[in-house]
Amino acid sequence: MSEKNASPAAGGPGRPTDEAKTEAILDAGRALMFAGRFANASMDQIADAAGVSKVTLYKRFGDKTGLTEAMIRGQAASMTAMIHAANRDAPTLRDQLRNFGVTLSAFLLSERFYHVDAMLTALRRDQPGATRRFFEAGPGTMRSELMAILGAAADREELAIDDIKLAAEDLLSLWRGFKEVELRFSARETLGSEELEAHVDHAIDVFFRAYRAQG
Amino acid sequence: MSEKNASPAAGGPGRPTDEAKTEAILDAGRALMFAGRFANASMDQIADAAGVSKVTLYKRFGDKTGLTEAMIRGQAASMTAMIHAANRDAPTLRDQLRNFGVTLSAFLLSERFYHVDAMLTALRRDQPGATRRFFEAGPGTMRSELMAILGAAADREELAIDDIKLAAEDLLSLWRGFKEVELRFSARETLGSEELEAHVDHAIDVFFRAYRAQG
DNA sequence: CAATTAGTGAACGTCAACGTTTAGTATTGT
DNA sequence: ACAATACTAAACGTTGACGTTCACTAATTG
Question: For residue B184, which residues of chain A lie inside 8 Å, CB to CB?
């Protein structure tokens, strides 16, 4: 009555589960997601695209909501990694922020992000509150890492910041920017890399003017 | 072959169309939308909630996508009105911006907005590019109105602004803020009115420090 | 009254997707 | 060999919603 759950701990008799198939499913899901077709795709199509039987798909993920969650979870993990990678050392504070901002903005202003966001919206529609678990992995981590950078700068008295958290949120908002809105409405094309850098630099300019030491 | 289209120009014989029913449908749709249930609601349920036959519903809006579009269109119109109302005179620039920001942020940081956004996302999924038509009614108008305010302030040399458009986008981004992200992830409760005012004021503070005259 | 159009309620046909079952094959331990 | 488990392909039952049709009633013009 409880035997059918989770992994059979392996080692026992019987054919072992092929983990590669789990990956294949997630890969196929990601491909559909980034093509903006995941929400409309049937389980049959997903199984097909993954080269896997539908039964296997259901065995692994339970139902479509389960698969959706797993995919967002994977995306969240890769975002955390991305953010950590973005937060790398650089000669000056400005360079450090530039690194951070370019990586972040490149993601926020990409089609990729839009589709992840759309999936989150769909998930919330089916399971209100399910999205909360992904806050930490995404925006929460972003904010923490940026707070660390800004806190250090404040300690060095490079910046005059009262409330580090608020300041980090300000800079994040500027990086997200109005361009994200334009993209959401299909009111502009994706940014080229020069535009992106200009965008990030402008945000840093504004931020520095607002928070420079000795106001 | 072309007689069945549009309105029969009225005046002819026959029972006249009851415009109140059109409104009833839109009202019911709005109610469902703000309850976050529109996307899941069947046409039968909507017709039911509106106290109208399903046939009437189809006669007026064609299909569910048509109804969705009509509802967003209505929402866009009321947003335009709201923004105009928010842009009212006040003794000082700061007061004027506060009026604007509070009205805008109250909307952006409400459940209402989240659901409108979710509908836009759903619409874009079914008809890519359809959202573009709503950019002007929403964010576009916002930006224009704010640009007018900031432009005037720059002319009076109250602010030192190079690029009015960029500056307006900066302030809008700050008003939207990280709190919108937290709400999107259900990572915080809706703001109370004091919190809201504090949020708006903080954004204005940051903006003024970045764009004050005589830097 | 006759003609014409709007509206209703209920039933209908259709379809797409979900998730399950079945019968059989593949791969492993004992 | 044998038991146990993974996997597949195909078929199946079910549900839910879409959009339409039908027979009938309501309101309006001439």
Answer: 120, 131
